[in-house]
Task: structure prediction
Amino acid sequence: MSKTAYLTTAIPYVNGAPHVGHLLDYLLADVYKRYLETLGVSVRLQAGTDEHGSKIWNKAASLDLPVQTYVDNNSARFREFIQQLGVTPTDFVRTTDEAHVRRASAIWKQLKPYIYSASYEGWYCSGCERFVSDSEYKDENGVCPDHATPFERLSEKNYYLKISEFKPQIKTAIESGTMRVLPAFRAKEVLNLLEDSPDVSISRPKSSLPWGIPVPGDDSQVMYVWLDALTNYLTVLGFPETDIADFWPPTAMFVGKDILRFHTIILPTILLGLNLPLPKVVLSHGFVLNDGQKMSKSLGNVVDPFDVLARHGLDPLRYFFLRHVDTFADSNFTWDKFEAAYSGELANDLGNLASRLATLCAKNSVALSPNARADLDSALASDEAYRTLMDSFEFSKAFDYVWSKFQALNKRIDTEKPWSLAKTDPETAHKSLESLLKDFLSAVALLAPFLPETSNHLLASLSAPTISPLPPLFPKSGR
Ligand code: MSP
Result:
């Protein structure tokens, strides 16, 4: 296993407040980061905010706010949001940062051999910030399915990036797994898209969109927001001014399924144009849905993550979004499902089990032996089934696997009945409790990347030389 890793998250547009759909990139990257760190890897985690483009410009104008003030405020909200999720990026980039602007311009200049200018007329969705093909326009009856807004007709002079130049290398990288696209069925979709992908427009006339990074050498144009945004993964590390070889290429990039194509077609073209290696893994997660529909600011059906945090605190939020939201498929969020997971699983399966064990161990003076305590440090590294799931990025399945251990322990404690054994056969009761406690704590160690607070708390209290009864972990009323 490599000693260093670089993990990345998509940088959200700051045209509104964070919503629960934005959680997944951060939570998935954070789980993987914590997992790798337990294995001794030094991890760099990037995050940031995407602050240029027409939808941000239009939103600030509609609120009658100076656009810089608007993006300053919203970028700060995203930073706060990330921190409240218990996620700590090592590097944070704003696309309006002077250093990003300077480095993105330098990247443009290096890409010049693959850039040309031409006129273009086509259909555009400013929600997606992309042109759609005529057939996509027809299939969707002229309305973007993700944003429920009609496509606009744009006719412009633009600069283009030659996707055609590197298609064969990108295809080989995906097919050979040098750049793994996850889940696997999406790799096929990307290969189909790549086949038909035309060269992409990478600039907009300043006259129709003044809010962007000026195109070097042409004051009448600004960079297309996606070109600007995709370079963030490099600029945040200091490229091209700094040597990034220790952390490039990314070990894994975490993005939603709607933006996979940008990360597996346009980004690889930029990287190959710069003579840089491609990411090892691009993982696309599904959508968080509300009543079967993508949650999005434009559709106005979003759930506020701060409301979810206020309900029961951080670990219940992480629990729901990491276990009940499948890592790769779309999943619905409802308050009912959230509450059922809280009381039926966190409070019952885990909270009750922990309290029962603590009480029984306290009563019967049971504690872990120093050897068993030392074994806990390697519990995560040595569980092969868990490692296989985590190494293949099957996080919700790995979480299920950990949970099945708690469910099995609940059954065991009910079958072995150490509380009644204690009356008739204290020695067997002691052994049973010792073994239950050891297996419980090994499972709790596997929980650490998912529910760090709960895992640390349980490991500290139940691996102590003397165990005391625990206050309820997930009380009925929540916080
Ligand atoms: N600014 C671009 C990303 C540029 S990355 C170089 C963007 N921003 S976004 O705000 O629309 O989305 C940010 C991330 O949140 C993306 O990974 C996107 O897929 C994810 N999600 C936004 N809404 C979502 C759901 N309802 N469900 C799950 N994730 C979705 O795209």
In short: Residues 335-462 form a domain with the Isoleucyl-tRNA Synthetase; Domain 1 fold (CATH 1.10.730.10). The longest helix spans residues 335-363. Residues 252 and 281 are 5 Å apart (CA to CA). The radius of gyration is 25 Å.
